[in-house]
Structure formats: C-alpha cells, structure tokens
Amino acid sequence: MRDINEILAESDISKIISELKNRSYSVPEWSELLKSYEPKFHTIVTDKKNRRDKVHSDGSVDKAARLTVGLEKLLTKRMTEFTFAIPVKRVYSNIEGNEKRKAIANAIEEIYNKAHIDAENIKRGTAYYASCEIFTMWYTTDSPNTLYGFESRRKLKCQTFSPMDGCKLYPLFDEKGDLIAMSFEYDKKTSNENTVVFFETFTAEKHKKWKHDGANGVWEEVGQEETISINKIPGAYLMRPQPVFDGLQPLREDLEYTLSRNSDVVAYNSAPILKVKGEIKGSENKGESRRVYRVMEGGDVGYVSWAQSDAALKYHIDNLLKFYWMQAQMPDISFENMKSLGNIGYDSRRTLLTDAHLKIGEESGPWIEFLQRECNVIKAFLKELNVSWRDEIDNVVVEHIITPFIIEDEQAQIDMHMKANGGRPVESQRESIQRIGKSQNVDETIKQINEEAAQEAIRQAAASTAAMEGMFSAE
User: Fold this and answer.
1) pTM for this one?
2) Domain count along the chain
C-alpha cells in the first residue's frame, strides 16, 4: 500500500477519493440491513404473491393482513441497553500521592461528563449493533471556560458518524492493521434543493475536504488543508462483520406470516353464521323490532360457533420467539415474562441473565479497545488545552469497565461490602444523608440528629434511674 501522504499528493482528486475508498475490511451495506431492521421494509409488507388481497365480484377488497414484528430493532435496543444502561465506569490509577495527576484525572472525567458521554454511548451502541460500524470524532471549539479545572480557551466535544445516519465510512488500514486514514462521505441539501456530496479525510497530520454538486460530477477541494495538532487521527473507529440480528431473519419472517395468516382466518370467521335446519315458513320481517324465524316441525335455527385450534398456534408462536431470543443470547424481558417471575432474589436475577451477561462479556472486548483509543485521543487534546500537564498526562492510567445491566439490589450490595469490611459500616453518616438527598443542609441535619440522640440518651438514663430507685424503695 502506498504512503497516505503520497495518495493525498495526487493531482487527480477522483483518484485520491477512489484510493481512500479502498477498504481493507468490508461490512454489510446499511441499505440491505435496513430491510431487516426497519419493520416497514419487511418482505411481508410488499409480498403480493403469498399475501394476496381478496377481490369480490362487486369490486370490494378484503386486504390481506400484513403484520410486522420489529424484533431486529428490539434486539438492537436490548443489546445497547444491556451494554450501556449502567454507565461505563472509568477507574483512574497511578495517581496516588500526586496532586497534578489527580487534577488530570478529574479533568478527563469532566471532559467525558460535559460531552454527555453516557448518552453518546447509547447512540453509538445502537448504530454499532445495527449498522456494524461507527466513528466518533473529537474536536475543539473556541469557548473560554473553566469546566476542566483550569482556564481554557477551547471546549472539547464529540460527534459520532455511522451509516445509520446516512454517512458512509471509509477506514484505511496499513499492512499492520493500523488506521492511517479515516474518511466519510455524506450529502447535504443546498438552499435551491440541490444535493451536494462531501468527502472528508482525517490522517494523523492533516484534514482535507472535497465536494461535488452532482451536476458535473467533478470533485473540488473545500477550504484549506488543516493541520492536526495532536499528531493522531482525532477519533476512534469500531466495526463488526455482521449485525447482532444476523441469521435471525427466517424466524422473524415465519412469525410475521403465521400471525398474518391467522389474522385473515380470524377476520373471515368473525362474522356470525346462521344455521337453519328444516324448511322456513314464511319470511322474516326485518322491520320488526324482534326478529323471528318460523320453521316447520322438526326444524331449528341457531348460530354456528367457530372453534379455533389455539393451542397449536400458540405453541408455534412461542417456539419461534423462544428460538429467536435463544439464538440472540438475549433474554425475553417483556412485561408478560417478567411479571410471572414474582419477587425473586438478587442471586436468582443474576442467574436468569447469565446468557445475556456472557454475550455482553463477549462484546465488551472490542468496546473496551475502542474506548481506550478514544481516551488516548482525549489525552492528546488535553495536552494542547493545558501544556503544563503535558509530561504527566500519559502517566495517568484509565481503565474502562462495562457492567452488563441487572436490576440492582442495594441491600445485597451493602451486605456484601459490609461482610468484606469485617461487619463495619461502609459509609459515614454524612455520606448517607447526602446520598438520600432529602436534607437541604447536611450539617444542620447531623447536628439535629446528634441533639435528638443526646436527648433520647438523657431520657433513657432518667427512666433507668427511676426504675432502679423504685426497686430499692420496694425492698
């Protein structure tokens, strides 16, 4: 592979873009994945061969039922929620006894908080599990602030790009598998409703941008080439070969067709059928308030009730859903399933979610690598924001911990930590009052509690003294 600077030095822009689009790793096209992810694009919606409308002789039409089930979208949400519903925890080490490193750790944490990283994780988790790739770019804006514990002229922000948002990603790797260029292509509408295509490329040294309006198809450079001050691509890229719902489409389609066919049967048999036995005498007067049929001797009139075989249908649908979630390694945590469990303990909940936790454990490896690369980018920017910390920033070690979702049992957690702590309390009275959040003045609340405790001690001591005096008087 040619050096990235040689590629960007080409005079023919179309040749540059062609080489930058030469992917080393391929992922499925989002246009194809969308057909499974979005229910309105499912096959059953447009299938005219297997789901035919019934046209009557009078021209009326009984439309065939086309019931869609968004299991792929639901599975994507479940995977994202199990991964990031409990926010990623960052543990900072190698900072003990060093005030500057502690300040650096606090600044990094504030950068994450001010960038709303927990909400960003939910967004990019959905994009990654469904569209297979994401790129999160970090950049600075001119905004004087003291958000990070020091005076800064710039503020650090992030933005995530993915095929789900209509952005095509083109990572370029070298022979060693290192990312040497990150490019993305997207469309924008102009004021006169014309579509302009933009193509941007980031390397460790520069940022270039091109566009063409589609009319003549000629690429032209936009603005001046920008220099990357942090000497690395200002973002992190993550990809997977297949979406989380890969291979599950047949089960979902069978479920949709089963439900739709049954819906047609129910609709057809919902109208009552009148059974007449024998000969009817006379005719029914439909204007009468009471409808009366007169039949000859031995005749009978009654409605025919339709008996559907619900057991077989329910068995089939339940099995389809069971196999879908089983192959996805996700529990079916719908309300109907959860309410039948009752009030089970914390350990039982953990056991029920074993499969899901194993799945998230498998997925967390690439995520942690991605988060670590992102953290290195933030550190590089922090060196630019506060040059006095430049020599110490890399000494701050940051570990990212992904905790699979589970309904927390605070009492179980407290008991576990108290046991490990030798039965002693694991938080102070002040911390407990602050965590409850009911007190408007923690110091005043503690003072009042102590005063009430002292008064109660005096009262109990007086009562004890009186009781003792009564015993001696009786003697």
Assistant:
1) 0.82
2) 2
